[in-house]
Amino acid sequence: MSEKQKKATAYWKVNLRYLIILLTIWFVGSYGAGILFKEALDTFQVGGFKVGFWFAQQGSIYMFVILIFVYVRLMNKLDKKFGYED
Question: The whole model's pTM is what?
Answer without folding.
Answer: 0.81
